[in-house]
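Lab notebook, bench 4. The sequencing result for the construct came back, and we need a structural model before the next group meeting so we can plan mutations. Quick request posted to the team channel:

Model the 3D structure of this chain.
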Amino acid sequence: MTKNWFKNTGPGTLVAAAFIGPGTVTLCTLAGVNYGFHLLWAMVLSILATVVLQEMAARLGIISQKGLSEVIKSEIKHPIANKLIMLLILSAIVVGNASYEAGNISGGILGLETIVGEIRVELGLYSINILSLVVGVIAFTLLYIGNYKFLERVLVSLVLLMSVSFLITAFLTKPDIMSIFKGALVPSVPEGSLLTIIGLIGTTVVPYNLFLHASLVKEKWSDQKDLKAVRKDTIISIVLGGLVSMAIIISASSIGLGEISNASDLAKSLAPLYGDFASYFLGIGLFAAGITSAITAPLAAAYVARGCFGWKSGLKSKQFRAVWIFILLLGVVFSSLGIKPIEIIKFAQVANGILLPVIAGVLLWVVNKKAVLGKYVNSKLQNSLGIIILIITVFLGLRGLDKVFGLHIF
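Done. Here's the predicted structure in token form:
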């Protein structure tokens, strides 16, 4: 039974692993601390939007047997538009993931520190965090093996560990079930919560996951008859990911207002209220969230580079490995030394803010082309949902640019 479950699970779970990174955990923590259960509906909306977009990307991947960047490159015929979009994709995904990788590794470190404490070594002017090297070595080893099935099983196991950890933590806080249902089903916008709502949607509907998903499904499945399994994997995995995010909000809401800035603070705050078990479970969950994102971000960047440059090579090729090694190495260096590449992160935010609505629009266009998908093009319902989500992504993109440039549009 377990073997059969693993056989039909994979790419969707890796997408869930990618969007539940340290940034999502921190944002969900702050949403729970500041607004209780009131923003759970935003996560429900985010998950619905993610399922719709990721299903389109996955369907494109299995039917065309190409990655999303490959399809875009071949379908946009205008040379200038083609080059501009390829440049935008490379900037947002490769440079973006490189700048965010330090945050992913730092999230894994926070989780470990909750359990084993801080371990630093002083070298001259620098204080090096040893745990960042530990996280980096684990991520490097798993990626370097270059076996998709092995990598998939490890990541699925880590996601299960993360899910169980956060769900148990939420259970230990003994939340009011009726209040949870009300928060999840009745939209409300408490004063000052708009940016948090936008953030919750923005950290779940992630552009690089669309590229990652389209590439991963063709690693696992190659036949059109597997489309049912692809959809099942996508829906179950992303809904599970949404439940994990909601569990973090629920756990944090039990604290009430306080000096909480990240999930590590939440773990420390839960210990006196609900015992060390709550703290340890949250620490394990945060470690799993950090390390899964530390693996999937370089992997996604390598897949995007492969599609943009037209490499035909696999996971063990020199070009593919060079991309993810570069991104992982940057993440380890920045996180171990505590360096924050602010300007690079700002650039990545701008690129991602522009990329999300562009890719959502291009994806919606491509999945309606019979030349690409044949009879598997979008239905009217899928197009209607896609257009609504496209409007949301435009709003998110404008919000991202507003945040970076301080335009005060919102």
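The CA atoms of residues 201 and 395 lie 11 Å apart.
Will bring this to the meeting.
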